[in-house]
Design goal:
heterodimer; A: 508 residues; mainly alpha; 23 helices; 0% strand; globular; B: 346 residues; alpha+beta; six-stranded mixed beta sheet; five-stranded antiparallel beta sheet; 8 helices; 21 strands
Chain lengths: 508, 346
């Protein structure tokens, strides 16, 4: 493989970015080394940690399988059955993505104030996170070669056995990836669980941080949280294996024939309708209720306008910075793949899996110790956003750079363009839409980000999420409603984009 | 005796009639090739026989058993019909051995032995059994797909363009292997292809389809030499088609006086000659035509000539490249065998 002419400084920048992504893990390692063995044992081996660990494992162990069952059922109904209005239903299955998880929680707690604990945590998590499995399963179902199912039938297997032995194994990657994503979100989420009073490592670390600021107790819990996180990554890698499930041949896939529901049709519509009513109806009804109760008085322009402005500013800064930081890595992984690039990519992958609270804790400590001037400044919070959302930007960028093969640049060169102009006229143009959608995804993440923003943003920062959080913390649910509504409205276009992408990923 | 019968089968997809009253018979152990341009309905017919789809109207019977009577149909998994698809359609999540054994009962005692026997049968090495399908070449994948379909000893084997993804050389050898294997096992087969040479060399019976209808069915020689329409003639190979005046087993046309295969037809008609019936020799004595272009392509060349009797007609003939060498020469035409006379219904 011939190396491109530009790799030297691109590789250098990629290396720098990857070193930065290692800051949180480095911080944990450093803390562990400096705390001393006895203190570590005293802080880690105690009932509180055990309780949090049990909570976390129960939460993940219940939520992920339930999400998988729901996602499989919904995906099968929208993709493989003759459910009337399948497209609409598929939109409804994705729509909960537009409602930030802590807004879901807010909807439930205001409707059922007594709701709390594991049951509530699992309930709200399932509602908020089913789309994370639904989307990859739908994409995988659409990529499957229907010929395989035909062949299995011709070999004497009835439909049920075909689903079990041919379809399900091929959904394995999607199931693993989606489950991991949900698991990591369960570890990282703060607002959802804090509101319904369910303790996880993340909520405990933040409580600890709020009371003792930066004690070793918080740091050690962060260490356990990171270990859990890495265990999830390892578990997923183990279950996924390294098998290939891609289609083998180039043959044109024929459109899949849909299963006739017959009498079960009404039951399917009612069931799906029930799921949609719970996942979308409850937030809509609650938000509507609080907006109506609050009336015009809760729309305080002197508070909402600056919160919106600050949110948009941070989202734009973070989106641009993250995309810029992702470009060198994405470029290397498409144009100059190799060991060096794979190691760097591994760094990005791990940092993307770390909870915001760990990244925030690391950046607080590092800035206080060695870079006081940027402590609680815009630079730090943007850095945190870059670390949090780098993998999102990477995914979109890599796919779009891959769409601009180097041959096109060479053709542009043969048609008389200088290398720089060829790069601009071909690669940049082709990669731009992907970069933009990646940037938008990052910006959406930042808009709904709570943990790191609370811990790192300059004093006096009020984003939509933090303003919502402080009002609902004061049980002023009506005043919180406009912020929730704006966050939902900002998320709608991107949810739509994800929905459309999932339908087109199959290339048809 | 009929083994597979397709009676007046029709199938619509929305407004498009994919099959329009197709009737086809095939006897036990016979190899039938369904050939036609893309969109002619041949793959739809195959899918209806396999049971992947059901006809709107019409009946399909196999070995005395009714498989489909309109939309009421035996599902594919109870039909005992093997299928090999264009790209093999191997299960990517299973090894070669598990692919071959997919249709065998999981607890069958001699499962391993049967799988080994099958891979020998299709001429692959047993060391491949533990590989994944993506580690095989296209030809090897097709062989595995065939072994997998043979495992259940099906009554009928359906082949949906199974050779079209292979290189030219590999295609011919794989085709021969498949034909020999099916013949040895006594399994009837239906091959769908858009490649006329493949259809003619593989099958005992060739069925030509166009626009959802069965245009003609018969032995390879019959459909090639006595096609029902000029369209079928051109589809099955190069053809020289000319207007002619007929009488007493002779036609007079732009090539002169030519013997025809129909003694009874009189008056105006259309005749067809295959290029291999026509040979050209350089001559100055009352030539039949003049060579206006020669396109050299190795073993053969393509000669374009203008006919003397009717200078508005040019014909294009593949010829051995050792023959004519120069453009512009006058040539005489010699014809071997009879010309075919088309029926007048067109």
């Amino acid at each position: 493989m011939v190396m491109p002419r530009r790799p030297s400084w691109i590789a250098l920048v990629a290396l720098l970015v990857s070193v930065a992504t290692m800051l949180p893990l480095g911080f944990i390692a450093w803390v562990t080394m400096h705390t001393g063995w006895d203190t570590i044992v005293a802080l880690v081996i105690r009932p509180r940690i055990g309780e949090l660990l049990v909570n976390t494992l129960l939460l993940a162990g219940l939520t992920v399988p339930i999400c998988a069952v729901f996602a499989l059922a919904l995906a099968w109904l929208t993709e493989r059955s003759d459910l009337p209005g399948a497209r609409l239903w598929s939109g409804l299955a994705v729509a909960p993505l537009a409602v930030p998880a802590f807004v879901q929680s807010y909807a439930w707690i205001t409707l059922f104030p007594a709701i709390h604990g594991l049951f509530a945590a699992v309930l709200v998590s399932v509602i908020a996170y089913v789309p994370f499995l639904y989307l990859p399963i739908v994409a995988a179902l659409r990529r499957l070669d229907p010929a395989l199912e035909d062949i299995a039938a011709s070999l004497g297997h009835p439909p049920g056995r075909v689903a079990l032995r041919v379809v399900l194994p091929q959904l394995r990657l999607a199931l693993c990836g989606g489950s991991l994503l949900i698991g990591l979100h369960l570890l990282a989420e703060y607002g959802l669980f804090a509101m319904i009073r369910f303790d996880t490592f993340t909520t405990a670390i933040i409580d600890q941080y709020m009371s003792t600021y930066n004690g070793p107790a918080a740091n050690m819990m962060a260490g356990v949280l990171v270990t859990t996180c890495l265990a999830f990554l390892g578990l997923e890698a183990g279950v996924r294996g390294n098998r290939r499930y891609a289609r083998l041949g180039p043959g044109a896939a024929r459109p899949i024939s849909r299963c006739k529901l017959g009498r079960a049709r009404l039951a399917a519509v009612l069931g799906f309708g029930g799921v949609a009513a719970v996942s979308l109806g409850i937030p809509i009804v609650t938000l509507g209720h609080w907006l109506a109760t609050g009336g015009i008085g809760i729309w305080r322009p002197d508070e909402i306008a600056p919160a919106l402005g600050q949110t948009l500013l941070l989202a734009t800064l973070g989106g641009v910075a993250t995309t810029l930081a992702a470009i060198p890595m994405a470029w290397l992984s498409v144009r100059a793949p190799g060991t060096f690039q794979r190691v760097l990519e591994g760094c990005n992958y791990i940092v993307g899996a770390l909870p915001g609270v760990v990244i925030a804790l690391a950046l607080v400590t590092i800035t206080v110790r060695i870079a006081m001037p940027i402590y609680q400044s815009v630079v730090t919070i943007v850095l945190a956003y870059v670390l949090l959302f780098l993998p999102r930007a990477m995914l979109s960028l890599r796919a779009s750079i891959a769409q601009a093969p180097v041959e096109l640049e060479q053709v542009a060169g043969s048609l008389g363009r200088s290398p720089a102009r060829a790069l601009w006229a071909v690669t940049v143009r082709l990669a731009a839409p992907g970069a933009a959608s990646g940037m938008a995804l990052v910006a959406l993440g930042i808009t709904n980000e709570l943990t790191a923003t609370q811990m790192l943003a300059p004093n006096g920062t009020h984003t939509l999420a933090t303003a919502f959080w402080s009002y609902s913390g004061e049980i002023d649910y009506a005043a919180a409603a406009p912020y929730a509504l704006i966050m939902v409205l900002l998320s709608v276009p991107l949810t739509w984009l994800l929905h459309v992408q999932s339908r087109h990923m199959a290339g048809r | 005796m009929s083994f597979l019968t397709v009676e007046a089968v029709s199938k619509r997809y929305g407004a498009v009639a994919a099959l329009d009253g197709v009737t086809l018979d095939s006897s036990a152990g016979q190899r039938t090739a369904i050939v036609g341009p893309s969109g002619s309905g041949k793959t739809t017919l195959l899918r209806l026989i396999a049971g992947f789809d059901t006809p709107d109207t019409g009946r399909i019977t196999l070995d005395g058993l009714l498989l489909a009577d309109g939309p009421a149909a035996v599902p594919a998994y109870r039909r005992d019909i093997g299928v090999v698809m264009q790209d093999g359609a191997l299960f990517p999540h299973l090894t070669v051995a598990d692919n071959i054994g997919f249709g065998l009962p999981r607890r069958a005692r001699n499962r391993t032995a049967v799988i080994a026997e099958l891979i020998d049968m299709v001429g692959l090495d047993r060391s491949m059994l533990e590989r994944r399908p993506d580690a095989l070449s296209g030809g090897q994948q097709q062989r595995v797909a065939l072994a997998r379909a043979l495992a259940r000893r099906p009554k009928l084997m359906l082949l949906d363009e199974p050779f079209s993804a292979l290189d030219t050389g590999l295609r011919a050898s794989t085709r021969k292997m498949v034909a020999d294997l099916l013949h040895a096992a006594g399994i009837a087969a239906v091959l769908v292809t858009h490649d006329q040479a493949e259809a003619l060399s593989f099958a005992d019976q060739v069925a030509v389809m166009g626009a959802g209808r069965l245009l003609q069915a018969g032995s390879p020689r019959e459909v090639y030499l006595r096609p029902r329409t000029p369209m079928i003639a051109s589809f099955l190979g190069e053809a020289v088609i000319l207007p002619a005046t007929l009488g007493d087993g002779w036609a007079s046309c732009a090539l002169g006086r030519v013997a025809v295969d129909d003694r009874n037809r009189r008056g105006a008609g259309t005749i067809m000659l295959r290029p291999e019936q026509i040979s050209l020799t350089e001559t100055t004595h009352s030539p039949d035509g003049k060579v206006i272009e020669i396109e050299f392509s190795g073993a053969s060349c393509t000669v374009t000539m203008r006919l003397t009797r009717q200078s508005d007609i040019t014909i294009v003939l593949p010829q051995p490249s050792l023959g004519l060498q120069t453009e512009g020469v006058d040539v005489g035409i010699a014809i071997a065998g009879c010309a075919h006379v088309f029926d007048t219904e067109e």
